[in-house]
Design a protein that fits this description.
Layout lengths: L14 E9 L5 H28 L15 H15 L4 E8 L4 E9 H17 L5 H14 L14 H41 L3 H19 L11 H15 L3 H14 L2 H13 L4 H7 L1
Antiparallel strand pairs: 1-3, 2-3
Helix pairs in contact: 1-2, 1-3, 3-4, 4-5, 5-6, 5-7, 6-7, 7-8, 8-9
Length: 294
């Protein structure tokens, strides 16, 4: 009969488990078993990562520039290599073959000590990840430092040591201090620019509007040049161009707004590119307006 863990997995006390399966196909039974075990290991490592990120309330973000995305095969191969190197003390806990579907199911388990070590790794990865908000990275480092004294490094297969993570924590503290300073400066300049543009929107005096808009543009230009396009999670250049385009639209300058949205669409990617395209579809610029803008 089909064991309960195939559909309703409950880990034994003090352990975390992962489940994998593999179809028979043309594989020999040993190869099928190995594939099922690898899938179970990926499931195990993934559950640890998800647990850590859920505890930190972190969102997964897409990575990779256009033309540089790795194939699924490459990612799987690299993930499996990392899992094999890092997960120590994994035991094959249960195995079941579905005789009708010719599918092998494998459950693996790992002790709490090894789970703690893997959690530490994931916390430090989150602290290192530039695609996460600075506050999330800081929280990950703080939790990683708090966990470090409780980790048993004797279970590490790859030679990881407490000294290595101590050194990494000191380095990351400096990295995050710099990132925090840069973020706060950008946020301050961006908010100040927003306030100036809001004041410019509220005045009907063209000269006063221009006087207020000029320093706002300078501040947004400073913000947009601080980092490259496509840098999650703040997307400062994208935000700056969008803010300027929005102001020009409300100020009655659709041609300048179109120019800014075209620039944003050309230089951005993903949601920001789509957002700029949608705004462009709403903007019209007549020949008379073009001549006035020039």
């Amino acid at each position: 009969p089909q064991p309960e863990w195939v559909t309703r997995n409950t880990a034994p006390a003090g352990y975390l488990t992962g489940i994998g399966q593999a179809q028979k196909g043309v594989l020999a039974i040993t190869d099928q078993m190995n594939l099922a075990k690898q899938a179970a290991l990926r499931d195990l490592a993934g559950s640890i990562r998800v647990t850590v990120r859920s505890e930190l309330n972190l969102r997964e973000t897409a990575s990779g520039a256009p033309g540089q995305l790795k194939s699924r095969t490459e990612v799987d191969a690299q993930t499996q290599t990392r899992i094999d190197a890092e997960l120590a003390g994994v035991e094959a806990d249960e195995t079941w073959m579905d005789p009708k579907a010719c599918v092998i199911w494998v459950r693996v388990k790992i002790s709490e000590a090894a789970v703690q070590l893997q959690k530490l790794r994931e916390l430090f990865r989150a602290a290192e990840d530039p695609a996460l908000a600075v506050a999330d990275r800081e929280r990950a480092l703080e939790q990683g430092r708090a966990l470090l004294p409780r980790v048993d490094f004797s279970v590490a297969r790859d030679g990881a040591t407490r000294e290595y993570f101590d050194t990494a924590a000191k380095r990351l503290a400096l990295v995050l201090a710099n990132a925090r300073g840069r973020f706060e400066m950008n946020e301050k300049d961006f908010r100040q620019a927003q306030e100036l543009l809001q004041q410019a929107r509220l005045t009907r005096d063209i000269a006063e509007q221009a006087r207020l808009a000029l320093p706002a543009r300078e501040l947004l230009a400073k913000v947009s040049s601080s980092v490259a396009f496509g840098k999650a999670p703040d997307y400062w250049p994208e935000q700056a161009l969008w803010e300027l385009g929005d102001f020009e639209t409300q100020a009655g300058n659709p041609c300048e707004s179109r120019r800014l949205m075209q620039d944003l669409q050309r230089r951005a990617s993903g949601d920001w590119q789509a957002k700029a395209g949608a705004r462009l579809a709403e903007l019209s610029c007549s020949p008379a307006q073009q001549q006035l803008a020039a």
